[in-house]
Amino acid sequence: MTNSSFCERCRTRDGHLCTADLPLFRELPEEVQESLCRYAVRRRHDKGSLLFLEGDPVNSIRIIEAGRVKLCRIDSDGQEYIMDVLSDGNSIWESLFVEDAVFTYTAVCLTDVSVCEISKDVFFGELDRHPGIERYLIALLSKRLEAAKEKALLLSIRSPRVRMAGFLLDRIRRFPEPEIHLKLDEIAASISLRQETVSRVLRQFEKEEILQRLGQGRIRILSRDGLRRIFTSGDA
């Protein structure tokens, strides 16, 4: 763990705050961003370690500076359900406003991970000094709620092809990177399909030149239009 009063890494080479690139903070006044950075604590976690466990108290905002983190739950039968896989720039903060909140899922590091933490007290102090921030946060929470509704709708789709197309479209919308980094078991646990089914659908999509599998859990999307066609038409 490294603790800095105002780490130089909080500013990029062109001089602007790194928080300006994060969806949670980029619309906040620069003075607020500077204050939050001043009290941020950077922690490093090894691959396979836990950021927190289901049931742990929610007492800070966690920002994924680098690496990939799996948010998951284990049901009574021991079956894992992956709620999300986060990467650079994503944050965990939604339950911060719930009194005595605890995490309803566990966060597992899929790679070595660097996380910046901002305590609940520090963040709430900024809210007290800048009450206008609350409207922005309410808007963000509303977007997260809509995303949760869309995920529930996706899981209700019976066709594996359509469900997979919707999942991949959501990933490339939320993470506009050249490749998707997810293993078969991670995709399967994310959309409640068997690994064999996921593998079969990916082979179909590759044959249809919709995507390319690059190995080691890497997928490159070749045709967003192809995914949209399958998802919107209900092509099974």
UniProtKB/TrEMBL annotation:
<dbReference type="InterPro" id="IPR036390">
    <property type="entry name" value="WH_DNA-bd_sf"/>
</dbReference>
<keyword id="KW-0238">DNA-binding</keyword>
<feature type="domain" description="HTH crp-type">
    <location>
        <begin position="158"/>
        <end position="225"/>
    </location>
</feature>
<dbReference type="GO" id="GO:0003677">
    <property type="term" value="F:DNA binding"/>
</dbReference>
<dbReference type="GO" id="GO:0003700">
    <property type="term" value="F:DNA-binding transcription factor activity"/>
</dbReference>
<dbReference type="InterPro" id="IPR000595">
    <property type="entry name" value="cNMP-bd_dom"/>
</dbReference>
<dbReference type="InterPro" id="IPR012318">
    <property type="entry name" value="HTH_CRP"/>
</dbReference>
<keyword id="KW-0805">Transcription regulation</keyword>
<dbReference type="InterPro" id="IPR036388">
    <property type="entry name" value="WH-like_DNA-bd_sf"/>
</dbReference>
<dbReference type="Pfam" id="PF00027">
    <property type="entry name" value="cNMP_binding"/>
</dbReference>
<feature type="domain" description="Cyclic nucleotide-binding">
    <location>
        <begin position="24"/>
        <end position="144"/>
    </location>
</feature>
<dbReference type="GO" id="GO:0005829">
    <property type="term" value="C:cytosol"/>
</dbReference>
<dbReference type="Pfam" id="PF13545">
    <property type="entry name" value="HTH_Crp_2"/>
</dbReference>
<protein>
    <submittedName>
        <fullName>CRP/FNR family transcriptional regulator, anaerobic regulatory protein</fullName>
    </submittedName>
</protein>
<dbReference type="InterPro" id="IPR018490">
    <property type="entry name" value="cNMP-bd_dom_sf"/>
</dbReference>
<keyword id="KW-0804">Transcription</keyword>
<dbReference type="InterPro" id="IPR014710">
    <property type="entry name" value="RmlC-like_jellyroll"/>
</dbReference>
<dbReference type="InterPro" id="IPR050397">
    <property type="entry name" value="Env_Response_Regulators"/>
</dbReference>
